[in-house]
Amino acid sequence: MAQRIDIPPGEAEDPLIGRRVRDFSIVECIGRGGMGAVYRAEHLLLREPRALKVIRAELFRAVPHAVERFEREARIAVKLRHPNLVLLHDFFVEDGDHFLVMEYVVGQSLAELLRARGALSTAEICRIGVQCCAGLAHAHELGIVHRDLSPENVMLTPTAEGPMVKIIDFGVARAALSQETTTRVSDATLTRVGDFVGKPRYASPEQAGSLRPGEELDARSDLYSLGLVLYEMATGALPFRSESAVGYLALHLYQEPPPPSELRPELNISPALERVILRCLEKDRAQRFASAAELGRALEEVSRENRARLERAPARRPGRAPLAAGAAAVALGLAALVAWRFHSPVSPPPLTETARAPATPPPAPVPAPAPVTRAPEPVPAPEPTSVPTARVTPKPSPAPVPAPEPARKPAPARVAPKPAPAATSPFGSDEEMDAAFEAAVQFEAEHGPADAVANWKKFRARGPSPALDERAKRRITELTLGGMKTFP
Ligand SMILES: Nc1ncnc2c1ncn2[C@@H]1O[C@H](COP(=O)(O)OP(=O)(O)O)[C@@H](O)[C@H]1O
Ligand SMILES: [Mg+2]
Predict the structure, then answer these.
(1) Which listed ligand is nearest to 36 at the C-alpha?
(2) Which pick of 37, 126, 223, 308 has the fewest CB atoms within 10 Å?
(3) How confident is the model at residue 424 (pLDDT cuts 50, 70, 90)?
(4) Among residues 310, 338, 362, which one ends one of the domains?
(5) Is the Cβ atom of 152 under 6 angstroms away from ligand 1?
């Protein structure tokens, strides 16, 4: 069984930050997880941002044939070219550490969005779900199963039309480091079911052990995981809850999910959407949609029905008097928004037009300073990480236990020190922090949503006070969904 790298947080101690590796200057750490760390970097010649995922050499030494497998998987992943999949630009090895060079995705993860907003509207769910299907369909056509689809691995970039999906974290490293051998669907000789490394909350029954001897994991496993993601978008929570990784796997194997409308009756979840979600969550993969493309078409149909329903709704066709009242309300709203941008410490109500009440009511637009409250975490249970196999007849794990991570590895020899860029340096004073916040608000008014989100992330990276950090996070969320106001 693969082990997680235990890298303590704290960027100041990270020897890679502010360094140069080959053509890249490493700016900041943007994610740490089971397989290593992900950094935002700048390509020094192209002056373009990139995301660098680094897998430390120690992990490879611990798992037999991991390097060969990693390289083979990278050769497959580099073929993925689709607007809804993160682009893998390059791959290199420096002092034994493996670097994946990826397109840098501006935005937030669906997990962050769900934490901030709770349940989403039918339109938002369909927009995100359809794009997930498009990206997965492309990968599946190439014989690649993601294996770890979850809200953490769905990045959302804001655009004028609404969030654009980029699926990240294809199982390049995971397939190499787990005893589960490959991400290829078609090559039976390379496929074996064994220990699986991923998020048990989002695992399919097949990953939990339902495959019979001779059967292979296939694309329908991703459709189950996507069903869980759709479920979470619809309800703000997952159908199952357990204290342990093995508990989750057992639930995926044997427990019927409660229908979303039973979990959250007050949300009036679209019955058509519910049918689609529950079909994804069938234990028997033969009962699910046959492909990501078919699921995508079903979601498009739900979206069309939803749009037609909203257009029929009386609130959408105001007569003259309501129109005038509506115009006055809009004017008032705009005035409130302008006032908020410059004075109010709380976020304006979400701009997104939803078919039903949002799970988390928007905060009242009061101008006086108010304590900032966090939206409740929809899924409070901590994510169990690496899990043993949950096959009904478990086989002994042949994986040697990797040596514990030694003290932080020194930077590779060819890495030249470089001072960290000023943009992420901490604030010198409260005044400087307040001024930076105001500047970011101003920036938002003058730039497109993706640039504005990138700018808010820079602001957050400098470590503002919790209250300002919360407001920055809310702005990122509003900007991510903002385009949806034109998408009923
Ligand atoms: N290409 C990217 N662009 C921007 N952020 C990214 C990118 N890839 C990863 N991240 C960030 O790093 C985090 C961890 O990356 P991921 O590839 O999912 O690794 P892990 O194996 O640790 O889950 C993500 O949740 C995301 O916040
Ligand atoms: Mg991930």
Answers:
(1) 1
(2) 308
(3) low
(4) 310
(5) yes
